[in-house]
Amino acid sequence: MDSYQISVIVPSYNVEEYLEDCVNSLINQTLGINNIEIIIVDDCSTDRSLQIARRYEENYPSIKVLKHHINLGSAAARNSGLEYASAKYITFVDADDFISDNVCKYAVEKLERTECDLFLYEYDYYSESGKKYARNPSAKLFSSEYEISNIEFFPEIIFATSVCNKVFKKENVQTLRFEASRIEDVLFSTESLFNANKVFISNKCKYFYRKREASGAISKTDTYFSDKRNYQDHLMVNSKMNDLKLKYPQYAEMIDWFNARSLQPFLYNIMGNSLFSHNEKKEFFYKSKQIFKRIQLETINKIDNPVARSNILAVQKSVFLKFFSRVIILKVKNKIRRVGQKVWNATKKLTKVTSIIFFVMLSQIFRLLPKYRNVWLVTERGDEAQDNGFSFYKFLRENHREINAYFLIDGVSTAEKDRLKNYDHIIKYKGIMHKILFCGADRLITAHRGTVEAWNYRLYKKYFGWLAPRQKYVFLQHGITKDDVSDVLGKENTSFDLFITGAKPEYEYIKSTFGYNASEVAYTGFARFDELHNVLSNRTILLMPTWRKELAWHASKEERERIFQTSEYYLRYQSILNNKQLDELLSHHNYKLVFQLHHEMRCFADHFTTSSDNIVVNKVEESDIQNLIRTSSVLITDYSSVFFDFAYMGKPVLYYQFDYDVFLSKHYRKGYFDYKRDGFGPVISNEDALIEHLQTLLEKPESERQSDYQKRVDDFFVLRDQDNCERIYNSILHLK
Question: pLDDT tens-digit profile of 261-317?
């Protein structure tokens, strides 16, 4: 064949144990081996790697072996492959790694269809022992598939420095070559990224980086801080990355983030490293200072480790001796702290084990009393009583008094006290009776993962489960699962014996993709759905967005506040709350709008203000959210699963999604639900259009507002009656 669709360059050096796995993953590509040019560059191997490569070359016309006569390193090997590569698209696979069988076909198809210059696909570490390895910030990119036309909106991409999980358009990299370095990928990968007009991100195929765990099989990434060359190479690459700011000033902040995060560990470790002389350490410090000196505080604060952040600030402000002394003191303190932490952890572990044994024994005594036999322990978050957990608990106390159902809650608000006053068997969350009943309960039932547990359930079950052999763990859920959260709620990450679902498509999705057996997933409908029938709506519009983990989850309050106040999330919703056209619309139709933050975002409630008498900013702790959901007439949300409750009640929904691609890349992976294809209302991306849609909606009679989406609702909620709790009860009762 004279032409190939893609060239795959494989640098090879002393990889006889792994080369076959690598090449087999290439010849088995669904694109077809005849369409793939495979270039194996042997860098003067001293084992059987060359012979293995030659054997493949003899059997497959599209495989070519190039041989270096002296060992030049992987950079030179890749450059040799680039000189030979003839296809329109080029990718690299290291000889000890392998790829999923759809990479070549999928990448070529996407690049052709989207006219992107670069295809970036998901990576993972392959460990024969099953050990998990942390991934760098670029891992956030692979929550879904999407095109990027401006990488500044996805700054984590700067850490995607490997060339191996990328497919390049040849014309975009034909002037680039690899630097002779032990981290030769960085500059090549970065420049190709900066030069790309568009980038396609995919999580539909995967690159597997092998972690060599056998004795004596240590990769260069595992010896970074004990090999002098790594310090030198990193400083060289960071310096050249810094120089790129002159050529690509628009990406200066991203480059600074990369340099700050990647160079700081070497600067920290070199200070106590006997491999380096005093003068070498001093030189390394001042060259690093040149790189760090103009990095802004906002960029430094993106680094998770507070010690790393303070070290960079210290470099900016210090001379060598002051910084050297600081690091040596830190290292001594850290060593003392580590020893102290080990002693403290051992003491805590002993105390916890002793405590568990005590409560396990106590629970066996309590189970002799009729009041504490056949216990079903129910909860939500531990401080709320207004969701599926409380709805199901009420059902049990009102309809199945033979079940000793107890509800766990603590720190309740006035509203919750009113809801609880008519019910007995209320137990203090995390109190003594919680621990006793946890050990002896037949059923542990929760609307939120982990909240019913007095201790880590898996460890408890492993060592003490034999004392309560009938105990089963039931997950009621808080909201309909629509996204791919299998990494959190998948079977391998939970201990659920029964996963309750609220809709037919959700049930099919959980059952088919989350790893549960068919008997471990039940479509019953949610407990709170029983209370969503025959509810009278008032003239209230509920504006209820979901949360953003990149805003809510920050180590320090100061950093969280600073990032939030400049976020698009805050600016967009604050703008709506002060929209004059909206205020006039509400006045004209005699409606109120209630802005309700998600539980995880309530720390930001005081930032939102409005000058309108028609708009109310609610605080989570002051609200009966379920009553608000039941009585509101219209919902405006972005991605919150509360829209399923509105659709279930036959009420209209407007989706205001101004950050769709960013949300999918940073928050949740996309699951089975597509808002435009499956949603129960229009999907809107700008504020003016949102007000227009709302105006159109309010001008319709209430009976006609949801008619356009009713079939979608009916197909989604096959069960729409007031028997949800009864079905849940029967499913739990018959657990084996």
Answer: 999 999 999 998 889 999 999 999 999 999 999 999 999 998 988 889 999 999 999
Residues 6+ positions from 223 with CB-CB distance below 8 Å: 230
- CA 392 – CA 405 distance, rounded (Å): 10
Q: Is the dihedral of CA 365, 367, 372, 377 positive or negative?
A: positive
Tens digits of residue pLDDT in 601-612: 988 999 999 999
Whether residue 440 contacts residue 366, with contact meaning beta carbons closer than 8 Å, is answered with yes
d(CA 119, CA 106): 10
Helix, strand, coil percent values for the chain (each to nearest 5): 50, 15, 35
Q: What pLDDT shows up at residue 224?
A: 67
pLDDT classification of 391: cutoffs 50, 70, 90: very high
DSSP state, residue 42: E
The span from the CA of 638 to the CA of 657, in Å, is: 5
Whether the Cβ atoms of residue 52 and residue 77 lie closer than 8 Å to each other: no
Do 120 and 160 touch, CB atoms closer than 8 A? yes
Structure token pair of residue 496: 């659920």
Per-residue pLDDT reduced to its tens digit, 301-316: 989 888 899 999 999 9
Question: Exposed (0-12), middle (13-18) or buried (19+): which is 563, by Cβ within 10 Å?
Answer: middle
SS3 labels along 58-93 = HHCCCEEEEECCCCCCHHHHHHHHHHHCCCCEEEEC
| Confidence (pTM) | 0.62
Whole-number Å distance between alpha carbons of 442 and 407: 14
Of all helices (H) and strands (E), which one includes residue 206?
strand 199-210
Phi/psi of residue 574, each to 5°? Answer: -65, -35
Report the first-to-last Cα separation within the chain, whole angstroms: 61
